[in-house]
Design brief:
mainly alpha
Length: 468
């Protein structure tokens, strides 16, 4: 049994209460010290580092508002839409809770996209933080699943038909596709069975996995330490007496106060959208979703919510001519590998066989299946980023100028793909989406080559920091 401490003489009631709890729950206080007051973070964090704490804030908002929505929502195909209308019109403050939840879904993806982009900029996925990045990508996948399952629940026109289109994509998978689509729907069409399945996944299954991944992400981060804009490991330079990093400061109170600035700005923008533009021109809440689901009336144009549209655009861009382009790229890559030299006879045979197998697969299955592969591969490829980036430095600060141009073009194409995914299909739009898709995958697939090219700046031994 641990030895109890006594409160100091003249201690306040708060101090006495704290000592009382610490004597009976020392693990909580030890974890608080490990992850807050005695967790030393780099002293040069900038505004890009707001988004991790903001993601945690939005997660809390989504859980709390979701609990209140579930109190009144009916997961029944005949009652779901009416129950949402009841929440909006008759439940006290129900409209506010619903708009907080719908705006929070978009806010979650905005914050997470920016958080991931900061990781790209500063190399936060590089050694020793590979597992932190992998957990983060898994969180992103869970968020996509959570958003997809929740998208059906209002049982509006776009919810119904969007789910119909996305679930039908699984039917394009060879051999198991039709059975897999049937398993997901629970019926031959999107129906009450689908609604109940999606409700259970949205409310129970995925949130449990998501919370576990968030905890794993934070624990892995605090074990290896946070990255910083310079990409310098602060644990390499410690005070010989205390063992504290020379360029580190306690996360609490310094960064808890620092993050309050980001929280304040975020809540101002979040509140402005909720009260003045909750639909945000149809991007956050589509106008067709205010019409009850009608299985007999298909909307003129079906598109997913904005945060799925870059990947949906890649799906639509994968046509038969696009598959032929992939065949040509594979053939050129195979020939290039053979001409480069340095391969043994057995390795050369292996390259040729691999190239022929890929070409045969591309020509065997139809473009719809490869569209699903491209859409999924656009997310899965992120998991391999720690091993694709071979740059001698982590941070964009010390990379050649043209690396910054590459990142800028990547961002532009991502936005263009997102915009095209919302628009009705067109020939010019499809062509631009195909170029964007090739660039997206080329950005990552060729990264082992282009990330090493250029004149890199010298990385300092200590972090660069100018106090405000």
């Amino acid at each position: 049994m641990a030895e109890f401490k006594d409160a100091p003489p003249g201690a306040s009631m708060l101090q006495k209460t704290t000592v009382w709890f610490e004597n009976r729950f020392p693990t909580a206080f030890a974890e608080y010290k490990k992850h807050m007051s005695e967790y030393y973070a780099p002293k040069n964090f900038n505004s890009w580092y707001f988004f991790g704490s903001l993601a945690l804030l939005v997660l809390v908002i989504q859980i709390v508002t979701g609990i209140f929505l579930v109190m009144h929502y009916k997961p029944d195909a005949n009652l779901a839409f009416a129950s949402v209308e009841y929440i909006m019109r008759d439940v006290p403050w129900g409209w506010l809770v619903r708009y907080m939840h719908s705006t929070g879904a978009s806010a979650f993806f905005i914050v997470v996209y920016l958080h991931m982009f900061r990781g790209l900029l500063y190399g936060s996925y590089r050694k020793p933080r590979e597992l932190v990045w992998i957990f983060g990508c898994a969180i992103f996948l869970c968020l996509m699943g959570e958003a997809f399952f929740g998208y059906l629940l209002p049982w509006g026109q776009m919810s119904y038909w969007g789910a119909q289109v996305i679930v039908n994509l699984f039917a394009a998978i060879p051999f198991v596709g039709p059975d897999l689509a049937l398993l997901i729907r629970g019926d031959y069409v999107v129906s009450d069975a689908t609604l109940n399945r999606f409700f259970s996944f949205h409310v129970i299954a995925v949130p449990l996995v998501l919370l576990g991944l968030v905890v794993a992400h934070l624990l892995a981060l605090h074990d290896v330490g946070s990255n910083n804009p310079d990409g310098v490991e602060i644990k390499a330079k410690k005070d010989p007496r205390t063992g504290i990093p020379l360029d580190g400061i306690p996360f609490h109170p310094y960064y808890t106060v620092h993050d309050m600035i980001g929280v304040g700005v975020f809540l101002l923008a979040f509140s402005a959208i909720i009260f003045f533009a909750p639909e945000l021109g149809g991007y956050f809440l589509e106008y067709n979703n205010f019409i009850p689901a009608d299985p007999l009336k298909t909307p003129a144009h079906i598109a997913p919510v904005w945060y799925f549209t870059p990947y949906y655009s890649m799906l639509r861009a994968t046509t038969d001519p696009m598959v032929n382009v992939f065949v040509v790229i594979t053939a050129l890559g195979t020939v290039g590998a053979l001409l480069k030299g340095g391969l043994s006879g057995l390795a050369r045979i292996g390259v040729v066989v691999a190239g022929l197998v890929v070409i045969a697969l591309l020509k065997t299955f139809d473009a719809k299946f490869w569209g699903v592969v491209v859409m999924g591969g656009a997310v899965i490829i992120l998991f391999f980023l720690p091993w694709l980036d071979c740059s001698p430095v982590k941070s964009i600060r010390y990379r050649p100028r043209w690396h910054k141009v590459m990142f800028a073009i990547f961002v532009v194409f991502f936005f263009v793909l997102g915009y095209l995914g919302i628009q009705p299909p067109s020939d010019i739009g499809t062509l631009i989406a195909q170029i964007g898709t090739v660039f997206y995958f080329g950005f990552f697939a060729l990264m082992p080559w282009w990330s090493q090219i250029g004149e890199f700046k010298a990385v300092p031994d200590r972090v660069t920091f100018q106090p405000h």
